[in-house]
Amino acid sequence: MKFYITTPLYYVNAKPHIGHTYTTVAADCLARFYRMSGYDVFFLTGTDEHGQKISIAAENEGLLPEELADKISQIYKKTWEKLNISYTKFIRTTEKQHQEVVKNVFNKLYEKGDIYKGQYQGYYCIHCESYVIPEEKENPLCPDCKRNVEKISETSYFFKLSAYSEKLLRVIEESEFIKPDFRKKEITNFIKEGLYDLCLTRKNVKWGIPCPIDENYTIYVWFDALLNYLSGVGYLYDNNTFEKYWPVDVQLIGKDIMRFHNIIWPAILMSLQLPLPKTIFAHGWWTMSKEKISKSKGNVISPDDFINEYGVDPFRYFIMREIPFGLDGEYSESAFKKRYNSDLVNDFGNLLNRTLNLIEKNFNGIIPDSSSEEEITNLTDEVFENYSKKMKEISFSEGIEEIWKLINYLNKYLDTKAPWRQTSENKDKVIYSVVEGIKNVSLMLSPIIPETIKRVFQMIGIENKINKENFSSIKERIPCGIKTGKREVLYIRKK
Length: 495
Fold this sequence. Notes:
CATH topology of the domain at 334-475: Isoleucyl-tRNA Synthetase, Domain 1
Strand content: 5-15%
Mean pLDDT: 91
CATH architecture of the domain at 334-475: Orthogonal Bundle
Number of helices: 17
Structural class: alpha/beta
Distance between the termini: 46 Å
CATH superfamily of the domain at 334-475: Isoleucyl-tRNA Synthetase, Domain 1
Radius of gyration: 26 Å
């Protein structure tokens, strides 16, 4: 079984912020989940490094475009390393291999007759690197970013996007191609309004991939960037890898780039006669005071600052737990602290701490030889089934909510059974049942907070006793007589 997942490529005009981080952590959680489910996972991410916007940003910093690309690309890599992003490949659009694939695809579409030379008259948004077809009015704004656009008139090469309107509508309406479902209407309405052929080249933009059939042009940056999903898994140069992983199973994107991914991208694949991605999931935005968090608004949240203050896993947990993945959500530090103190400190951390205390006090730090309560075993099976379903639906917050049903039950179970009382019956069974529950909770949480769970396994002494990389361990009981490890506070309450 294979699973191929991608993030969009991130533009190297500026450092990563919470929006980039949100998509990438989500992709990492899915990649880890599927690996633990027994899948051979290919996880692709990387940086988009061509285009007019990069040239301008580089000039503003007194750098050459390639120098800026190298600088920012390394920052992304370091940030992903800090966040424990388990990608298979980090692709850069300046890589020679990718550039050759882009040129070859351009040639294929040209030879097929899906690319032709014509005249473009209209507007171009440098910020979005997108061609704008505005209403007939003076000084129009970009419909996406609301910035001023540049009026251009130039001979260019066009892709026959309009020729794929009907086929696109049929695929979108009859399949699970676009997720969440409520995004379908926006895309289908846009297509029904009429698609314009896509301008594929720029004449006066030097920082880009040269057009293979006309040296006077460079290839449009979005055409270049979208093809990374093909070049990243070996299209046209590594058939074994490509045949193994294509088509993409899940592509995660922000809702602001839906049209590129849900219209232009599948049309290109149709022209190449390649299978379409199974799912393209557009998540919402993080907002602050009801405004999108973005560089232009000056309300950027640096993941580095957040991590340095609170730690990697609390950050990962919060952004995956706080809001349903497809919707917008309001960020605030108070919301984070509330979630942190309630879930990680009070519920999970306290459950672990008092269980370890009981093992130390009653069994000299040795997990007692017993078996788990049937009711806990049954609940675990139910929770895991529901959790798996939600993760496959890309419903992270609901999946985590399922885990918390078991955590809450275990806390209540300890309170009810009260094994700290001398008169308590089946003290060994109660404690063993809770330890077994913690093990299973931890396995399910591992894709979300991987470093925390490593610490948990060390503390309960099972880091080398179970297969931590596979959910099959949920069905395996903890061996008897295990000595618990060195204890530490899992999370410290934030004021």
